Amino acid sequence: MSSAQHHSILIVGGGTAGISVAARLCDHPGAPEVAIVEPSREHYYQPIWTLVGGGVFDKEVSVRDEADYIPPDATWIQDKVASFDPDHSSVTLASGTVITYDQLVVCAGIQLDWSKIKGLEGQLGKNGICSNYSYETVDSTWEFLRAMQSGTALFTFPSTPIKCAGAPQKIMYLADEHLRKRGVRNNCKVVYAAASPGIFGVPHYAKPLSDIVARKGIETHFRRNLIEVRADAKEAVFEDLDGGEEMVIPYEMLHVVPPQSSPDFIKQSSLVDDAGWVEVDDRTLQHRRYPDVFSLGDCSSLPASRTGAAIRKQAPVLVENLMAHREGRHLAGSYDGYASCPLVTGYGKLILAEFGYGGKVMETFPFDQRRERYSMYALKAYGLPEMYWNGMLRGRM
What we know:
Number of helices: 8
Largest sheet: 7 strands, mixed
CATH superfamily of the largest domain: FAD/NAD(P)-binding domain
CATH topology of the largest domain: FAD/NAD(P)-binding domain
Number of strands: 21
Helix content: 10-25%
């Protein structure tokens, strides 16, 4: 049985982007009526999962009740989106409810496509196979790491865009240091097999990271994409993205970063570009074909790193431009591509990478952020979570 309802501004997704935008809209002078479509009862602070996988925190520190962060003046629709009809300014939910809107904000995050890796299904958390990329599997990373005595610890990076592009190597550095502290590193190899052409996409930070890789004795293979896991044999199969032969790497521990894409219900809509992301202007965050639609965060086409720090800069621009659009004014807000990647390089060590469109360096602090520092590690481990829960999700940062 279907029903219909109307909301002035409809936000699809109650993650980092959706809650941040909703909080800002509800605090805006002359605040419009806002509704959020989000099925989950839990809200996760995912950046801390690197440190959970490295044994620093229990995973429970990363989760809180979604209800505590829905703005009091917003309507929470606890359902899933089934389809979009932007030509008629409507969304159909899984329950059959049809919602019409004046403006739509699409920020439904990113989809983890585990099934695209042959042989992986049903193996996560078993046979040394782990991943920091989900709440259900993140504690298995620490379980396998602390049990490792010899063999290869293998870390992957897929050929698709992913959330937090630095995360695949952060856990690798922690693993290397943990194995050294336990005195078994000489019995182990640490290998990074990545689809990327190098260790980091911004040259300013690539050099110090390359030096760290060399210092730690980490073996690297670039332009290699994980396509199959042979769990019984503990082998990982990689395609060569330059057309060469497949590579098979035996492992004792395998940290998998899955291929990622926009959620299927977005890819199947008319909102996307040819690559399957919600097609918005790089600066204004307004849809290129549907002016009443805006998007930000991981599911958008913005050519920026998919990080919470990027969303922190995108959200105020989107709200400014959405309100200007409602009032018939020029869209003056402009997003510069800013993103931050706190690169954990060991326990108590971090390089803080900050950059914008075109790899432009956009650092905050008056010192060389390419140097490993405890202060920046403390910021990530203790400062940023507080800023997230008590600032960003409240529309204050």
